[in-house]
């Protein structure tokens, strides 16, 4: 396993919330509350209609696949191993029962928590942070988190201190974007830093499905070439899949850098993204400064908010843009 992770970090950094703006959002996402209401109605119907239906419903619940995650309960996951991906980013592999499925869908994240603080009475106070798995949602018995370790980041510093065998409590999934194959003809993506993680979920879901013909264009911004996460993975995917185009830009280029320079500009967006249209969707995920520049950030209630920034200036509408919480 140690050799595997060393090779992984060296060669290919991986081996492996919310609603739409405007009136069209219901066509892309079914809120959890609606799912619960429908499920509750079905259970009521089964219970009051026929003993046979009740029996069949119970059998279905008993024989269905086990799910490792729970949206309503904190579950312990054991750290198997770690690998350094960049100067400030690490990969963390956690394990679970291989006979179960993790319970993550595209695209969603999970919550992590750790008792890193105390309240006024000296009782544990939890720090909670969301992270997006970058491994295949169908992977058996493990999942991977890619985490940037910040000097003042309480949770990321906690992750950096973990050793194989340590436990982390997690809960989920937390919905970001409910992706369905061919939901749009062309999807444009703008990512900054670790905002690449939900984009990768969507990209890999598209590329591994031969029936999904979606065209994907990614603009990926970072501080420097060394900060570009998953670059080799993305380059390999782009080279082997003609429906994926990737463009990189960095704030501090080196002399040998041949990609974009500076913040994502209107010109970069025009050249690298699909044009505004009914069959176009633009996904945006990154730090607050980038979001403000590109599209405006999400509203205080975490809804999509009002579109602004260069995407609005280029003619995209709120129905064409979806902001993903990092």
UniProtKB/TrEMBL annotation:
A GO-annotated cellular component: mitochondrion
Cofactor names: FAD
Top-level lineage group: Eukaryota
Alphabetical keyword list: FAD, Flavoprotein, Mitochondrion, NAD, Oxidoreductase
Location in the cell: Mitochondrion
Keyword Glycoprotein: no
Any GO molecular function: cytochrome-b5 reductase activity, acting on NADH
EC number in record: 1.6.2.2
Keyword Flavoprotein set for record: yes
Principal location class: mitochondrion
Binding site for FAD: 129-131, 146, 148, 154-156, 197
InterPro entries per UniProt: CBR-like (IPR001834), Cbr1-like_FAD-bd_dom (IPR008333), FAD-bd_FR_type (IPR017927), Flavoprot_Pyr_Nucl_cyt_Rdtase (IPR001709), FNR_nucleotide-bd (IPR039261), OxRdtase_FAD/NAD-bd (IPR001433), Riboflavin_synthase-like_b-brl (IPR017938)
Reactions performed catalytically: 2 Fe(III)-[cytochrome b5] + NADH = 2 Fe(II)-[cytochrome b5] + NAD(+) + H(+)
CDD domains: cyt_b5_reduct_like
Domain FAD-binding FR-type as annotated: residue spans: 72-180
Family per similarity comment: Belongs to the flavoprotein pyridine nucleotide cytochrome reductase family.
Name by which UniProt lists this protein: NADH-cytochrome b5 reductase
Protein species of origin: Pyrus ussuriensis x Pyrus communis
């Amino acid at each position: 396993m140690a050799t595997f992770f060393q090779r992984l970090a060296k060669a290919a950094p991986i081996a492996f919330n919310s609603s739409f703006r405007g009136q069209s959002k219901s066509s892309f996402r079914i809120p959890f509350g609606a799912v619960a209401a429908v499920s509750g109605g079905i259970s009521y119907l089964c219970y009051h209609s026929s003993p046979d239906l009740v029996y069949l419903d119970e059998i279905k619940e008993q024989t269905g696949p086990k799910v490792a995650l729970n949206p309503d309960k904190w579950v312990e996951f054991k750290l198997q191993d770690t690998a350094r991906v960049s100067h400030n980013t690490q990969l963390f592999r956690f394990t679970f029962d291989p006979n179960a499925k993790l319970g993550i869908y595209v695209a969603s994240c999970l919550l992590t928590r750790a008792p890193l603080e105390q309240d006024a009475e000296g009782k544990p106070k939890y720090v909670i942070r969301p992270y997006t798995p970058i491994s295949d949602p169908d992977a058996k018995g493990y999942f991977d988190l890619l985490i940037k370790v910040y000097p003042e980041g309480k949770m990321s510093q906690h992750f950096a201190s973990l050793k194989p065998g340590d436990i982390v409590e997690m809960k989920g999934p937390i919905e970001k974007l409910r992706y369905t194959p061919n939901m749009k003809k062309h999807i444009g993506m703008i990512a900054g830093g670790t905002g690449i993680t939900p984009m990768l979920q969507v990209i890999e879901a598209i590329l591994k499905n031969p029936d999904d013909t979606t065209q994907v264009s990614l603009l990926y911004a970072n501080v420097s070439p060394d900060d570009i996460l998953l670059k080799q993975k993305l380059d390999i995917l782009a080279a082997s899949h003609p429906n994926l185009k990737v463009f990189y830009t960095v704030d501090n280029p080196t002399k040998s850098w041949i990609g974009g320079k500076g913040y994502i500009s209107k010109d970069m967006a025009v050249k690298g993204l699909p044009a505004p249209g009914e069959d176009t969707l633009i996904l945006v995920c990154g730090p607050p400064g980038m979001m403000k520049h590109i599209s405006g950030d999400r509203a205080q209630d975490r809804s999509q908010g009002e579109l602004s920034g260069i995407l609005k200036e280029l003619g995209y509408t709120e129905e064409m843009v979806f902001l993903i919480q990092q």
